[in-house]
Amino acid sequence: MVKLNDEMQKALSGLLFLATASKDGIPNVAPMGANIVVDDETLIISDNFMKKTIANIKENPVVAINVADCRACSLQFKGKAEYVVEGEYFELTKKWMAEKMPNIKPKGAVVIKFFEIYSVKPGDDAGKLLETDD
Ligand SMILES: Cc1cc2nc3c(=O)[nH]c(=O)nc-3n(C[C@H](O)[C@H](O)[C@H](O)COP(=O)(O)O)c2cc1C
Q: Where is the Pyridoxamine 5'-phosphate oxidase N-terminal domain (predicted)?
């Protein structure tokens, strides 16, 4: 898995767009804000209202992310997601949500580890692979 530097961790802690796809390749994208950077290789997103997103992840774990503040962080993240409804990561999510958004009870948590990071900055390096775990 690739390591997330401080800039990446900060960006992923803010509003982001999570793209998933069904096993038949039907894409889906949704905004997500309940994002917890656990360490330099793990992002959790609290499942508060997700529908197609979770159905897709159960069929196809590969996800892509752009952060909303893409002028400050012009990166495209590719990762593998796992959906959990118990265990360490879900406990952490419930605690985080109880502190930040106490009126919303999470249904589960999407745990993402990243395998590639690309530049989306306009110019010569647009689309360039910056980090890979190969
Ligand atoms: C600014 C913003 C932040 C959001 N953050 C989350 C979130 O962290 N977790 C969540 O489950 N839904 C969140 N949502 C709601 C989802 O984007 C929404 O339920 C969407 O329908 C999910 O896509 P899906 O139904 O295709 O799975 C957010 C929506 C907005 C507008």
A: 7-120
The model's pLDDT over 15-56, given as tens digits with 9 standing for 90+, comes to 999 999 999 999 999 999 999 999 999 999 999 999 999 999
Q: Which domains does the chain have, with CATH numbers?
A: 6-132 (2.30.110.10)
* Average pLDDT value for the chain: 97
Q: Which among 32, 43, 51, 85 is the best mutation to test ligand 1's pocket, defined by most ligand atoms within 8 Å of the CB?
A: 32
Neighbouring-strand partners of residue 114: 79
Confidence class of residue 134 from pLDDT cuts 50, 70 and 90?
confident
- Cα torsion angle, 30, 42, 38, 76, sign: negative
In whole angstroms, give the CA distance from residue 24 to residue 2.
27
Farthest-apart Cα atoms in the chain, separation: 46
Q: Which amino acid is at 75?
A: L
Q: Which atom of ligand 1 is nearest to the CA of 49?
A: 11
